[in-house]
Design a protein that fits this description.
By secondary structure, the protein is mostly helical. Helix content is 53%, strand content 5%. It has two domains: 88 residues, no CATH class; 190 residues, Intergrase catalytic core (hpI Integrase, Chain A). The chain has a three-stranded antiparallel β-sheet with strand order 1-2-3, with no helix packed on it. α5 crosses α10 and α8 runs antiparallel to α9.
Length: 321
């Protein structure tokens, strides 16, 4: 679609489109009065009367169109077809969705997540039972954040779901719709897994088909239910909130609201914030639609807010001068 628009409207092939062309495309999809040659009633694709649009796009559809273009261009840069992603150079904000579109707010900002994980790591267990709680809590937070599983998936899987292939580790997870997919296991997650398994007095590397639960009770004799995993995670965040209450009551209040699913939202949000391609985050999330993953994009909001802060600083400086 973008290629066709480029050739017809701009007289330029995809490989030669520049920043101004992409801004023109944004204007096109946001146009409240689209041209007749692009819009019309629904007809079969092979009909001469077929048009790609039936009318103006809603805000969420505009956003989805731009997210898809961004992903396409990133892929073409990766394959060497394009030298650079010109679309990424634009300074315009993706269209804001209307109130009917889901917006992910149930996540922890990077500094609050760092505080929470440090709170767990800095605990000083003195008894064997405290040490067992410590190692499990540390592993659980790493698991929920780095692999972004649903809590039911944590409860239902075993250590045997970790597989090594050609020197790379993957987590094979069966989730919604009984679909099995694999998720890359990065270095931090692998270190957390090895550490927890050493605590359980197991070999560092799990074997395919191993029946040890993905996370165990204190004695290591059996797995945990989804409800118990929820309660453990909730206790961690409430304890952290209590310590933070006097220093920062607003952040403490947010920690009070945290549930296990917040860690999934937090992990996916931070992946996008760190520049991981939307396509890969979509695979990690195991969403059927790219649109579902795009609601985790908060970077544009941060940039927008930062620009307004610059604006206020400029006004203040001119007044003071």
């Amino acid at each position: 679609m973008l290629t066709t628009l480029g050739l017809i409207e701009r007289g330029t092939p995809l490989s030669s489109l520049n920043r101004d062309d992409f801004i023109a495309y944004e204007n096109f999809v946001a146009d409240s009065q689209p041209q007749d040659k692009w819009c019309g009633p629904r007809y079969p694709r092979n009909s001469k009367k077929w048009r790609p649009f039936q009318g103006p796009l809603k805000p969420q559809s505009q956003r989805q169109a731009l997210v898809i273009i961004q992903s396409l261009l990133s892929y073409l840069v990766e394959t060497g077809y394009l030298a650079a992603n010109q679309f990424a150079l634009r300074r315009r904000r993706l269209p804001k969705a209307n109130n009917d579109e889901q917006v992910i707010e149930r996540y922890l900002e990077k500094d609050l997540w760092d505080y929470l994980f440090k709170f767990v790591v800095d605990q000083k267990p003195t008894t064997e039972r405290e040490k067992a709680h410590y190692e499990r809590n540390r592993y659980l937070l790493s698991l929920l954040y780095l692999l972004t599983p649903r809590v039911s998936e944590v409860a239902s899987h075993t250590m045997g779901s970790f597989h090594e292939s050609e020197g790379k580790w993957w987590w094979h997870v069966t989730g919604k719709g009984n679909k099995t997919q694999r998720i890359p296991v990065n270095t931090l997650m692998l270190e957390a897994l090895y550490r927890y398994r050493r605590h359980l007095k197991l070999a560092a590397r799990p074997n395919i088909g191993e029946t040890t639960p993905l996370i165990c009770n204190i004695t290591g004799s059996r797995g945990l239910s989804a409800n118990m995993i929820y309660r453990i995670a909730k206790k961690i965040t409430l304890n952290a909130a209590e310590i933070l209450q006097n220093e920062d009551p607003i952040k403490a209040s947010k920690l009070h609201q945290v549930s296990t699913h917040w860690f999934r939202h937090t992990g996916l949000t931070h992946q996008l914030d760190n520049g991981i391609d939307l396509r890969y985050v979509n695979k990690n999330a195991r969403h059927s639609k790219m649109k579902t993953t795009s609601v985790y994009l908060h970077t544009e909001d941060d940039n927008w807010h930062q620009e307004m802060l610059k604006h206020s600083t400029s006004i203040k400086d001119s007044i003071e001068d």
